[in-house]
Design a protein that fits this description.
The complex is a heterodimer of chains A (295) and B (275).
Chain A (H helix, E strand, L loop, with lengths): L2 E12 L2 E12 L3 E5 L6 H8 L7 E6 L2 E2 L2 H4 L2 E4 L11 H11 L5 H9 L15 H13 L5 E5 L7 H16 L3 E6 L2 H7 L2 E6 L2 E7 H4 L4 E6 L3 H9 L4 E7 L2 E6 L5 H10 L6 E6 L2 H9 L1
Parallel strand pairs in A: 3-8, 3-9, 6-7, 7-8
Antiparallel strand pairs in A: 1-2, 1-4, 4-5, 9-10, 11-13, 11-14, 12-13
Chain B lengths: L1 H12 L2 H23 L3 E2 L2 E2 H4 L5 H11 L1 H17 L2 H8 L3 H34 L5 H5 L3 H24 L2 H22 L9 H6 L6 H15 L18 H25 L3
Antiparallel strand pairs in B: 1-2
Chain lengths: 295, 275
Amino acid sequence: METVLKINNLSKNYGNIRAIQDVSFEVKKGEVYGILGPNGSGKTTTLAVIMGVLNANGGNYEWFEKPFSKLSRRRIGALIETPNFYPYLTLWENLKIVAKIKDAPEEDINHALGVANLLKRKHTNFGHLSLGMKQRMSLASVLIGNPEVLVLDEPTNGLDPEGFAEVRNIILSQANEGKTIIIASHILDEVEKVCSHVAILKSGELIANGRVGELLSSEETVFIQSERMDELIGILNDSELTSKVYMAEDDIAVVMNSNYKSTDLSKFCFEKGFPLSKIVVKKQSLEDQFLQLVK
Amino acid sequence: MKKLFALEKIKALSYPAFKTLMIIHFLLFFLVILVVSRFHFSIPGFSVKGLYQFPNIWEFFPWVASWFNLFLAIVVIILAGNEFANKTFRQNVIDGLSRNDLIKGKLVLIFTIAVYTFIMVLLAVFIFGLINTKNISFDIIFENSYLILIYFVQAIGYMTLGLLISIIFRNNALSIVMFILYFFPIEPIIRAIFKTEARKFFPIKIISNLTPTPEFLTMTSENSYTNTSGTSSLDFSEIGLLPEKLPLGITVILATGYIGFFIALSTILLNKRNL
């Protein structure tokens, strides 16, 4: 499968502050790739560097297996940070500028405004829009020129629940058309519902990446207590019953492999000489898992 | 280039402040030449009416228009500064322009404004010159007409300096203040520090000398000063009231060099810094 984006050891500093450090990952064609992380983790910086608006201090990146160029830019529709348009121009005039830059036909403008539900506002000045509408306008501009890749930084920022759902549907419909989508977000629900893959950033460093189902899922977690907990963790880590084992306060949290149940775990521990004094099965929330990862 | 022109056209012509400033520029220029034309002042060897006749008009009108080149530079500062304030340079790059395209776009804008003001002065020269000149001949009409081309270079010079300052400071108010302060007092003070020939080669000195005060006006002011005070120890050229003159050809070459320098520095800065 074609690699759409390849990032190698990318670093960016703001003075003494390391915004991102040695970040590497790949996005393949057709993936909906989430970049997840708390505020200040380097999501926006990563996107701004790969879109050429910030200069990297180290590392490199390639779009479509080639160095970033004017031609590759036109195959990408991007929304980075806040919506940036000319406040004194109408939506139509602003999108005309985008269409001219991308060599896209003017018919794209009405189509994009229609998708973003802004057609009735096409003659309104951008500066007169609400934050939510500005966000939708950004989404409309991203769609101009029918790009192969969409890069969206917090696309639901400032939207009400209805707008949130609309944007999500737009993203999903674009994904269904086979487009590659890269989304930066700190909203777990958004990432889980939309993304196929995810990279998790913390303090500018990549701490995990892979399929969403593997990294973040609403799976069952078994919380256990026994004697000699440290020893038990080592044994469980080597066991085929478990996919993930970690300490959660006073408990050992165990994520079971799909073929096994909590009763199998209890039996296994007993046979190994670790009778359990506590066993509680919980469905762990995405938030808990995310916090566990970024801890 | 055609695309960049189309983009700048949308950005500038739909911007109310741009339209207002250009109308004010047009009105100020014509106001000055109309008001001065109402004076019927004359002394031996000089009359106001003579300023409106060929070939003197080629010297006088570009000189008057050059007062308002600062105004055009401020228009460029505002248009470029808005791109930083609204982060639209950033968005243009995200959408597919290169950083060099951003500079080229602004140079297209500068060139277009310079052509507009060139045509404005040219039309004014012909209208007033043909009305006020007796015994018109082809030679008289076009004698000194090259001065309007030099005015065109000057307009570009001021506007490219405005663009550079805007890229350095990225803030409209600060850029305008710094631009004006550079004219006075920063560069004159720096020039005063240099007690050598070097003071003739500073950018504002060179660019403003492209359209020097018409010769018949400087002669009059120098004479009248000497007449009232006897001897003069004050060098008007030194404090910038009268131009220290280099030959015009050299001034044009140096001004063109400065324009190239402003453009190169603007390009380097825009490429090096984050958007």
